[in-house]
Design brief:
alpha/beta; Spore Coat Polysaccharide Biosynthesis Protein SpsA, Chain A; 7-stranded mixed beta sheet; elongated
Length: 314
């Protein structure tokens, strides 16, 4: 039984899902009806080449709560989710994949229950996930690395979610593939998060387009983690990062200089010219540049904060 009954927007995306999209929409609609939930179904077609969009549009006259938005071309999962949220009408968002790897009848009540307890965001955890050894292991690695880097105790960052719509507008802007880090960005803002266990259901037809992970995407995923770590840890205090790196380079420069002095005093003129150039150009100058970047970043952040505070005071 669902105790928490907000006005709810079920957001989902579809890309070449003609074989299962009708069943998904009808099951979501039935779940809302059975649980007496006041909600809408917001479907975003992300540039499908098959009959997915036509099927969804044919269902609109029969399912009054169904809203369909179409991208002219495939723009990726993160952008499609953002489009769905921005075109939703209600204050609570529940995201499900349209490929039926999630079970709407089970997952909608599970995801809503923690919101009734005062949580701001509920995250599903696929406890029985089976999508091939490489894909599963890569996903588990990124989730483990994210937990260690950000201290957010969530096991499945890229799965089903229910949350207050305000979170979307209060976190850093979502970029390509950043839907995986939505939970991290929400945690940074202080929102209360609860994880619930959900079942994973293998696709019965077609090929999965949700949460694809491959070897080619590993470098990009690592770089995204680094960028988000910077945003969550140093965006308001950039001097802590740039100044710290500059100080480290300065220390190395001093140590190399002392080593050069030692060589000249003990064994004479040995490699001093090459090492001296390296010390001066690569260490001392680099440290000065990092300090300068940190100082400029602090000025930018301070100026931005003053503009925001003035805007709020008006």
């Amino acid at each position: 039984m669902v105790l928490f009954k907000p006005k709810l927007s079920i957001v989902s995306t579809a890309f070449n899902e003609q074989l299962g999209i009708e069943e998904f929409i009808r099951r979501v609609d039935k779940t809302l009806t059975d649980n007496n939930l006041n909600g809408e179904i917001v479907m975003v077609d992300d540039g499908s080449k098959d009959k997915t969009l036509a099927i969804m549009e044919s269902l609109q006259p029969h399912i009054g709560r169904l809203k369909v938005i179409a991208h002219r071309k495939n723009r990726g999962l993160t952008t499609a989710i953002a489009t769905g949220i921005e075109n939703s009408s209600h204050d609570y968002i529940l995201f499900l994949p349209s490929d039926l790897e999630s079970h709407p009848e089970e997952d909608i009540p599970k995801l809503l229950a923690p919101l009734n307890e005062g949580y701001d965001l509920t995250v599903g955890w696929r406890v029985n996930r089976r999508q091939g050894f490489l894909k599963t292991q890569l996903s588990e690695f990124f989730n483990w690395l994210s937990r260690k880097m950000f201290q957010v105790n969530v096991h499945d960052l890229g799965w089903v979610k229910a949350f207050k719509k305000e979170i979307y507008y209060n976190v850093e802007a979502l970029r390509a593939d950043w839907h995986r880090y939505f939970v991290i960005l929400a945690a940074k803002e202080g929102y209360k998060i609860k994880e619930v266990r959900t079942k994973f259901y293998p696709r019965r037809a077609g090929r999965s387009h949700f949460g694809k992970i491959g070897l080619k995407r590993i470098p990009g995923g690592v770089f995204d983690l680094i960028v988000i770590k910077f945003l969550t840890s140093f965006s308001l205090k950039p001097m802590r990062m740039f100044g710290g790196l500059g100080f480290l380079m300065l220390i190395f420069g001093i140590l190399f200089s002392m080593y050069l002095l030692y060589l000249n005093l003990t064994i004479g003129h040995v490699y001093d010219r090459v090492l001296l150039i390296m010390v001066i150009l690569m260490l001392f100058l680099a440290s000065l540049q990092l300090f300068a970047i940190g100082f400029l970043a602090e000025l930018i952040v301070s100026g931005t904060e003053r503009k925001i505070s003035r805007g709020k005071s008006k």
